[in-house]
Amino acid sequence: MEHLPKRTTLVEETAATLEEWIRSGILKEVLPGEMPLKARLGVGRDTLRLALKVLTREGWISAAGQGRQRQVEPGKLAAGEPAVNERLPVTFLSPYPVAHRLTLMEMEDTRLRLEAQGRALHFVSPRLFHLKHPHGHLRRLVREHPSAAWVLYAVSEPIQRWFEQQDIPTLLFETPFDGVNLPFVTDDWEAAAFHAGIQLMRHGHRIVGIFEYRERRPGLLAEERGLERALSTVQPPGRLVVFKDDLTPPSVAHSFDQAFELGEPPTALVLTRAAQVLTCFSWLVSRGIRAPQDISVVCLPNDSWFSELHPPLSHYRADAQATARHIGDRVLELVAVGRVARKSIRLHREYVPGATIGPAPAPPGMTSS
Question: Helix 101-116 and helix 320-337: axis angle, to 10°?
């Protein structure tokens, strides 16, 4: 009599996967919490809990206690470096819950090349970016997400410094903070801002407003430097006015209120996030202010929907394919040897002329001859 293959349940499959992770050393002394395990396994809470009970009953892990995470039983810990480390994922750490679509495009080359190795590219965004001392949370995060390498995007200075100090294979997809010596791939924001400033100076603008997030990030400081350099090319030098927001549309609109309430308001606006564009133009329309007749506007980053704007917006765009290639090369090198020999790079952003930069309007009470 022929016997049909034994069918396994999802609980059994989940338990078998966790057991293999323990055998191979992917899971070590302390198990991650239920939330990260659910996400990595792609199962529901009840399935995971039943699988964990199976492993507890079979002596693989200890039972969970009040305020105590489950642990791998000492006799079950893998000896030495696991062979399965060859298939550990690369983890992309960012404060944004859903990665920006342009960022996903720029990471696509890396994802495909990792996939060819049998690896995955994971995106995680824990709530720790506002913390001044995130060290304990980062230790737990790294333990819960065993990775061949990490890519950091728009993280805080303490997080950059912690990864450097731990000697974890890490690539910055952003500008490093002063004194942080990690390999990086980033856009050349200072050069883009300098070019934007020169365009504005040529049109007679002498007071320029830059709108940015309140945190003093290296990329924003580079943009300010670029604009200051451009403003210093004229005599008397032009003036840069910095306005801050907290990323929300009301705070962005409040920044525009502040700009236009000045005794000498800026005649040109420089935006540092694509998301500011819609708030900017809806605010200008609500006040009856025209671009570029009354105010010039330029945006340093770009987004795919900019092509839908009419009249077209003056902005700067990156070569997504070149960015993807540079990141992929460095991530694969990091995974292979644990360090990056290639030089860090700042990538050129191409100027896309639009119809939102025009001559500086004459001051009130003056008319052109």
Answer: 40
Q: CB-hemisphere CA count at 13 Å for 31?
A: 29
How distant is the alpha carbon of residue 67 from its chain centre?
A: 32
The CA-based dihedral angle spanning residues 150, 152, 153, 155, taken in that order and rounded to the nearest 10 degrees: 140
> What are 25-82's pLDDT values in tens digits?
677 778 888 887 877 677 788 888 898 888 888 888 888 776 677 888 887 776 554 4
Does residue 361 contact residue 293 with C-beta atoms inside 8 Å?
Answer: yes
CA dihedral 321, 323, 325, 326 (to 10 degrees): 160
Token pair for 230: 């451009």
Residue 86 DSSP class: G
pTM of the complete model: 0.76
Domains defined along the chain, listed by start: 10-76 (1.10.10.10), 88-187+322-348 (3.40.50.2300), 189-318 (3.40.50.2300)
Q: Which token pair is 302? A: 């770009």
What are the pLDDT digits (tens) for 177-201?
Answer: 999 999 999 999 999 999 999 999 9
